Amino acid sequence: MQRHGDKAIIASTYNHGGMFAEKPGGAVSCDSSCIESLGKLIKQKVKECEYKKEFDYSGAKKSDWPSFKESGLNAIRAFETGFVSYIVRGANESNIIWRIFSPALPNGVELHSTISSTEDGDEIGSWVNDFHEFFLKVESVEF
């Protein structure tokens, strides 16, 4: 999600036995202030995630990153500083509960939260936006 703006990029992923990678062409952007649309898109993209045993990313470049491509930015550094990358995934194989994880803060702490995957788009969108706002507040505190 954009640090200073309303753009969110949501990507479906491959699960490689606990290692996750964005699916090529699987990233879509939306306006994060449209709570219901954001939540529905997250639900769609989580459903598109799939297990894929074999993988080889040895030839991949960072510029191939689907979310970076979707951002429309020209520099990886601008993307990495302008957006915060969160992970939303099932807490277990049944995906009844979803968890969201933040990147590590400077002191190594990571934030996480959970929600029922059966919640509607409004609830999921609000959950993610509230998490994002809280992360930005905590990130701004000097440790």
Summary tags:
single chain; 143 residues; alpha+beta; NMB0488-like fold; three-stranded mixed sheet; three-stranded antiparallel sheet; 4 helices; 32% helix; 27% strand
Give an overview of the whole structure.
The chain has 143 residues and is an alpha+beta fold. It has a single domain (7-139), classed as NMB0488-like fold, CATH 3.40.1590. It contains four helices and six strands. It has helices at 35-48, 66-71, 76-82, 121-139; strands at residues 7-16, 19-31, 50-51, 87-90, 97-101, 112-116. The strands form two sheets. A three-stranded mixed sheet has the order 2-1-3. The chain has a three-stranded antiparallel sheet with strand order 4-5-6, with helices on one face. Helix 1 crosses helix 4 (121-139). The longest helix has 19 residues, at 121-139. It is globular. The relative contact order is 0.19. The model has no long low-confidence stretch (mean pLDDT 93).
